[in-house]
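Quiz preparation item.
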């Protein structure tokens, strides 16, 4: 057994018992025996590497870039000349200088901001500015005025990239220019980076190209530069390179596995920005509930999300819609911000009116209906004779025309054409259309068919129930005959209410209608508000209740609530005689005013 061996183990080199021969420190002693080989001495093996002379003793290859040794001095003091290296970078749009340059010439001044964009991203930086400096080639043949230099400490300063004569001497195609490249100056620092704002220094006057994958040389006005890897052979290049594809996770930890592409990023705001500014520790005062409301449901989940413009419309109406002294709701025209100034449209409105007048002359019945409609507008104070316009004030003239409803051949509606373009622009182009605040027609009909006692109602001239803010009325100017007499001269009018033809009018009307309901909820009940908000489709209300008394009570309270804001609920129609008798004849639907409720059958619609 090995443990029972009594032999003494010694080092064959020094006879020591403290270590074996393999652990002997130092080389073995020379032996006199030669084993019968030749007695001639063998010369020692010499290993030479030209690359060491080019790249130095480092373990990495050397690559040269466009760096020139130049002279720099102030224009007013040429005696204060400094030798420095300048990096020629045509990817930079400005010329830079290191802080050492500013300190060397004792340049004072306040720091100015600038943005430095690199592969690592954009960085906001501050630096001094220097002007009035001259750069000169080493041989003095080229003298250029430097542009404004910006102080930057991030200029590349790898001196190993400076071209030297040795870098050119060992390449056949570069050897003829080796004498034109100055030796490395240990005292000169890399102080400048010259960008495209000094374009002349980047122009190539001569070039030595050479074979593929070899460095090349260029002569610019400041001297010769070498670009590329000047390492000879494969001294610094491993025979094989192994890489591992690594992913960086969000927590900055490397991983060989690809991160999951399906991720949920949740943010929560702790109060408004103004509140956070006023109370710096606001975030700490809240108990963190991050992620606890991700799957919370709300009453609006099934609705289409609002666009940016729709949100702006609602914010504008919320801030600027108000009730005037007559209890009518006043709303502005919701202009886009920013918007272009409206061009002149007066001539177009006159041309369109002339066309309408020719049509009315050919159709007397239509002319009669048209005049009646306009008289109704003037009697209700929905339009007024326009005052003279101050010089240069922006305005808009609306063309007008008449349309008939297919089921109402004896009733015309005058449309104010806000989509008419003048010089390529229309009034609707500069207005926010607003969100679709209308209820679903299917939803309204389904609720309408639930109960036994059904009632339909209508809002009289819904758009005209909402007043336009006075400073916006000059955008609703139009031409019509004075005193509403077709034989009289034309004059300028302007609408005082929101008109049929403006793209935002439906949203303004529905928003104001619901605002009226919210305003009267406390006095007239939440069910009246609910009926107004949920059981109307534009201006048509459809109601059904289990008993006639409930329907009558709700309708009467809703009528009073809307009447306070000068909105009339009328055209009542019902399948119940009791409901119909509860309302005066003038409030009943057309065709039912002459109905004898004692003898005639109730309508079925």
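Solution:
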């Amino acid at each position: 057994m090995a443990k029972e061996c009594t032999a003494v183990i010694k080092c064959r080199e020094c006879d020591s018992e403290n270590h074996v021969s393999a652990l002997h420190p130092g080389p073995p002693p020379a032996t006199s025996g030669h084993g019968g080989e030749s007695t001639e001495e063998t010369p020692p093996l010499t290993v030479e590497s030209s690359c060491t002379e080019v790249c130095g003793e480092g373990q990495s290859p050397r690559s040269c870039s466009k760096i020139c040794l130049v002279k720099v001095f102030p224009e007013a003091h040429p005696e204060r000349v400094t030798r420095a290296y300048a990096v020629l970078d045509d990817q930079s749009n400005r010329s830079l200088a290191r802080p050492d340059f500013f300190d060397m010439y004792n340049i004072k001044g306040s720091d100015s901001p600038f943005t430095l964009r690199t592969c690592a991203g954009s960085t906001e930086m501050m630096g001094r500015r220097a002007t009035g400096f001259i750069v000169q080639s080493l041989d003095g043949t080229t003298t250029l005025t430097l542009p404004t230099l910006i102080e930057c400490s991030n200029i590349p300063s790898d001196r190993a990239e400076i071209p030297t004569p040795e870098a050119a001497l060992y390449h056949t195609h570069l050897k003829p220019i080796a004498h034109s490249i100055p030796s490395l100056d240990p005292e000169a620092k890399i102080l400048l980076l010259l960008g495209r704002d000094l374009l002349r220094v980047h122009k190539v006057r001569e070039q030595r190209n050479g074979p593929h994958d070899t460095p090349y040389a260029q002569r610019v006005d400041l001297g010769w530069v070498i670009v590329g890897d000047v390492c000879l052979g494969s001294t610094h290049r491993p025979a094989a390179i192994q890489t591992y594809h690594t992913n960086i996770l969000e927590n900055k930890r490397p991983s060989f596995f690809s991160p999951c592409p399906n991720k949920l990023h949740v943010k929560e705001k702790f109060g408004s920005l103004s509140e956070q500014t006023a109370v710096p520790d606001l975030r700490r005062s809240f108990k963190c509930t991050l992620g606890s409301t991700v799957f919370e449901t709300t009453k609006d989940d099934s609705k289409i999300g609002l666009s940016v413009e729709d949100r702006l419309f609602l914010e504008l109406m919320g801030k600027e819609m108000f009730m005037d002294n007559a209890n009518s709701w006043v709303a502005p025209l919701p202009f886009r911000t920013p918007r272009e100034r409206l061009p002149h449209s007066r001539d177009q409105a006159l041309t369109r009116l002339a066309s309408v007048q020719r049509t009315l002359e050919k159709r007397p019945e239509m002319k009669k209906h048209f005049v009646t409609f306009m008289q109704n507008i003037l009697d209700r104070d929905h339009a007024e004779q326009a005052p003279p316009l101050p010089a240069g004030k922006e305005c808009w003239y609306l063309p007008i025309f008449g349309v008939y409803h297919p089921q109402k051949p004896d009733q015309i509606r005058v449309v104010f054409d806000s989509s008419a373009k003048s010089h390529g622009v229309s009034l609707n182009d500069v207005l926010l259309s607003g969100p679709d605040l209308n209820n679903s027609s299917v939803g309204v009909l389904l609720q309408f068919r639930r109960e036994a006692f059904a009632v339909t109602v209508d809002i009289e001239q819904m758009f005209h129930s909402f007043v336009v803010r006075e400073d916006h009325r000059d955008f609703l100017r139009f031409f019509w005959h004075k005193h509403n007499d077709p034989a009289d001269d034309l004059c300028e009018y302007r609408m005082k209410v929101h008109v049929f033809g403006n793209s935002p009018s439906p949203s303004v009307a529905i928003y104001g209608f619901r605002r009226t309901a919210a305003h009267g909820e406390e006095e007239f009940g939440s069910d009246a508000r609910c009926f107004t908000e949920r059981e109307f489709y534009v201006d048509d209300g459809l109601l059904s209740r289990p008993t006639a008394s409930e329907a009558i009570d709700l309708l009467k309270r809703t009528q009073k609530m809307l009447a306070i804001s000068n909105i009339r609920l009328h055209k009542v129609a019902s399948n119940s005689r009791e409901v119909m008798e509860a309302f005066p004849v003038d409030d009943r639907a057309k065709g039912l005013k002459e109905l004898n409720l004692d003898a005639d059958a109730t309508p079925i619609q």
